[in-house]
Amino acid sequence: MTQIDPNALIAAARDAARHAHAPYSRFAVGAALLMEDGSVITGANFENASYGLSLCAETVAIATASAAGRLREIVAIGVIGGAMDADGKATGTTPVSPCGRCRQVINEAAQMGGRDLPVHCGAAEGDALRSYRLSELLPDAFGPADLGIN
Q1: pTM for the complete prediction?
Q2: Is 58 among the residues known to form the active site?
Q3: Residue 50 labeled ligand binder
Q4: Is position 99 annotated in a ligand binding site?
Q5: Which of 36, 58, 108, 136 is catalytic?
Q6: Where are the transmembrane segments (predicted)?
Q7: Mean pLDDT across the stretch 21-28?
């Protein structure tokens, strides 16, 4: 099993947030998935003028893992977010956690992989870090197991 380094995941998420397309909210989010083999898949939020079509960073990263046939290989996730400065860099010292929709998307991957994923929530700047199990963020989650799929 791959060793989980929350700080390395947060660093990868910060790097991903630099690529956020967030012209409307001016809030950049980055996500990093640690895979079974130690590789990392990242995603950044992608907003759309039709707001409902926007994609969260966690969803982008998980969809990327799925498109590569690796949905069941996710062992941990790191997330950061913050208001964008004039250069487009995420700022702020308060850890950001996944929104409700992303918690459900993360749950889909977690259940498919048979894991209660650790979710590391970091700040855009500084050392603040909060770590949870997905089951803490989304207790009694509905997912593939409820449909008899896993």
Answers
A1: 0.95
A2: yes
A3: yes
A4: yes
A5: 58
A6: none
A7: 97
